[in-house]
Write the structure tokens for this entry.
Amino acid sequence: MWLARVHCWQLKDIRQKEKSQVDKLPVLPLPIVDQDLTRVIPCYHCSNLQGKHPERTTVNSTLETKDNFFNQTFSANDEIAKSSNWTSVGHASFEDKFDPKLARRWIQLEKEAFGRVNVSPLPPFFRPHIPCLSSKTDNSTRPLCVVRETVAIEVVLKNPLKIPLNLTNLLLLWEFTPENHTDIISNEFSPREDFVKTEVIKSFDISGNETKAAHLTVVACQTGQLHITGIKYSLTSVAINGPVDEKFSIPPGPHSAMSAVSMLGRLDLVLKGPRLNNTKAEKTSVMHGQDNRLNLDVVPPMPLLEVRFSGFPSKLLCDEVVQTMAEFTNCSECHLEKLYIATPNPEFFTFGGDLATLSEHTTIQSNVKCNSTLSNMRRISEVPIPGGSLCPGYTTKLGIWIQGHGKPGKFKREVVFYYQSAGTKSLMSYRVLQHAFDITTNSSVAVRATARRNRHSGLQNNSDDQNQLIIALDVESLVQGEVARKHIEFSVVQVSCASRKWTLQPLSHHKTDGSIKVRYGETVIVQFKAMKCQDECNSSDELHFSHVCFVENEIAASCSPAVDFFFRSGAWEEQRKLTENLKSETVDDTSQVDISLIVFWQTSYIDKDFQKQTVNGQSHVNINRLAETVSAVTQPLVPQADSPSNETASPSPLDRVNNRELLVKYSLRHPASLQVDFSSSRLARLVVELHYTTVARHLLMCLWS
């Protein structure tokens, strides 16, 4: 302790003697800087807007709709006024850990967005956005920062002594070269805040044997080149006399033996890049590449996007659909345009359609034709902000629909917001905002479906034989554990059919019967009838949407957002591939059908405030082949040696049958209901007639009892 105090006195004495001869601050021995742990955030958001809603200029929002998913009505202003759970996304923080796999995915999405927006290949000088620079990132190029925006530096300091240290007036040292100038300006002896504003930490304490990170910021006020050279601080000897919290307990005096000794000095930041190991000279010696973390290019003003969500879910049921609100704010002095969103999972969200153009008295009709050319699911899509741009300081709010994954588990949903400036282009031609959502999904319901031919009792060879199908829909509740106690019952409120050839009609369950109830551990089977469309779609870009609704309000399955999630589902992808395969085949396969069912369901629970909350969901299932179809058996091949080449074989009865036609057709006839008095007998007798026919139209009748 005494030696450290003497060391400070000696340093101070040397500085006083050579003050007029030295143009640099001395390098202090304490604390020690861990150079490899230095990190840089070129665009740092100082204010934490979590849970706050500052006043901003709001442009016309497309959030308020009248006819949306389950006929709910959302008012943008009311919801925003009531909700305080706003979460800002995409802000880089020193608390974030570097993930190399995630970083590669960010770069890939950024490249795709750049190519999609600019409709051009990547330029040779393309440099991806890295939100936080560290020793693990590629620092071969100089990072870009925007004038009048904050740059944050994390410097890790270690105190090797067992006694605490106190650093006062801690700040960053920098050298700045203004644009179109060669003079180098430094803040080593004067602040020079007209060029770069520097944050000063009045007091920074480091306990004995402690490693502590200091977060320091600078703001460039002019364009040019900024180089962070080190840190500047005063090391006081008072901290050596006792604990950190007692260092100012003794008032300094001119004749006191315990008077404070303060030494002003610096510590240099010298970063090394990765070790080079390519050439022979590099392998035989220790050579490092260039690390430009602290060498920044200051560019002209750019738009600065802030994205906030209200009520974004972290837990969902499988296939659950919720609406959240997104707020987009331009926090800069430049106009923002060409706002796009890139994600590897475009199936989990949609902005919905422009429902504001619909009339309040619009009725939803069956057999709606929907153009499916817009169904191509893209990883890059434009954010529908009004007018396509945001003025400085303006905010717009959009409704976003989120759907839970079809399987239970924990999933990460990554999004990149890409945007450009409407003004003059600079070295920074665009900006991106990255964020990853963590969503946990729990089991809800499973839907399965099969289709069979409809058979009449007479089995006459009429057109109805090929123009009707019986569809069996199985709905099973898969909830378990705490979810099962929370969501006791599921209700199927509507089943819609999307097909080019078929429409859906009720059979075993009608609207007057109400919604279909499925409780924990149950499976409900519902029968529907599918009829061939009279005006069958000639174009593969058109679909018929038909609906069987069990509640009062019918859901617009052919409108956004329901149709968006359908076009993003695996059922649509399966149907699309089937259609492409059928086009390539020369023979029509009568056993294949193109029917996709959209099952809308609801469940409810009581929240902690004893309020009933409704959960909506949308599941999909595809039917591409009849359930009772068997493969046609062709005639066995006869060896060529057994028959002369000039002899023609007699035609077989099977040759006249289409190889793709069903060989076996059957139907069952039985009463729809049966009343039994089990008090007199425990045996119930049900008569079922099986009508069985082959391609030769030979009829067999059996009675089962």
